[in-house]
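## retry 2 of 3
previous attempt timed out at serialization; input unchanged, resubmitting
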Amino acid sequence: MAYVRWTFIILFWGVIAAFLHYTLPQTDIVRITDTYEKRQDFSGISAYFWASPETEQQALSQSRDVFFIQTFEEGGKPSIYRNEDTGWGWPPYFKFDTANLQARASDLISKSNEANPTWVAIRHYGWRSELLSTYPNALSLKVVEGPDVRIIPWTSIIVLVVLAVLFLAARTRWRRFKARRIDPVFDDVEDRMEAIDDHYDSITHRLRRWWRGKA
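## retry succeeded, writing output
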């Protein structure tokens, strides 16, 4: 039972960690090399990693046009971002400026042969998976001095602190509730079971004495 319990605990916290890692914003420092629009098909499990359709017509369609931002990191690793509105859906970033973000990204394009390329901090959420053809969704971007600029993820820190406080508060309340309501019930049941056992032992002892007296 201990293995089952720890397996459940590890799986539970693993799912929570994966959910937070996917949902909370992250920031990459890159140089933009291209922006484009591509017709994207939505099928299979990868469809869950795209933004919800904005209109009923899009919802009925299996494909729609999506903006993309093509970038490279300092070491030459390519990073591709989709640029979709989140609207009023999940995650709750309330992003409605996809066209403006795409225009700004196009204005900040740097060619690979430039001596001093423009470095941009792209704030995004989501995962890049070549197997599932999923891309992180760009939320905002800003020009930075260089690829070594340190970005402190204040939003993620605040969210994690708030969640930790809520978890500790809920855990404390549960322990108090358990101590006041649940533990006394189990203690009472345990006392009753012990009383029954004592009564049974007493009867057994009397029967044995009676049998020995008859013998």
